[in-house]
Design brief:
Blueprint: H1 19-31, H2 69-92, H3 97-129
Helix pairs in contact: 1-3, 2-3
The protein binds zinc ion.
Length: 134
């Protein structure tokens, strides 16, 4: 028995040679915070909360568990932005510790809060591409 064709689904990307395409598709859709399966419905119901299922294709988005991966990648990326900034500022104008803290602490918090939902979407897209649930 064959499944009816879902025009929003990309289950046709299932061969071994399509895994790279499927991964890029999942990353792109997830980074836009859209459903990785169809790319049309919203994957998030709030800032970081995943919807239980897609409104468009009814893909069970809530079954994916991103756990600690999004914060890990967020810290990794933000650290690679903030630490060189701190070091460059320290070597060039040698500001006081208070000035360094007043600049880089809010910058770090804002960058983390800004990146986290998009990185969580990308992790969701990666899990979709690799068919990792639960
Ligand atoms: Zn969908």
């Amino acid at each position: 028995m064959t499944k009816p064709h879902d025009p929003h689904s990309d289950d046709t990307l299932s061969g071994p040679t399509d895994s790279g395409k499927r991964l890029m598709l999942g990353l792109r859709r997830g980074f836009r915070r859209k459903c990785p399966n169809c790319g049309h419905g919203f994957a998030f119901g709030g800032y970081l909360k995943l919807r239980s299922e897609c409104d468009v294709c009814h893909h069970p988005i809530g079954e994916y568990r991103c756990d600690d991966a999004p914060p890990y990648f967020t810290i990794f990326i933000v650290g690679h932005i903030v630490v060189p900034g701190v070091l460059m500022m320290e070597q060039s104008i040698k500001p006081s510790l208070l000035m360094q803290m007043s600049i880089w602490l809010p910058t770090t918090v804002l960058l983390c809060l800004g990146f986290l939902p998009f990185i969580k979407g990308a992790v969701l897209g990666t899990q979709w591409a690799m068919r990792i649930k639960g």
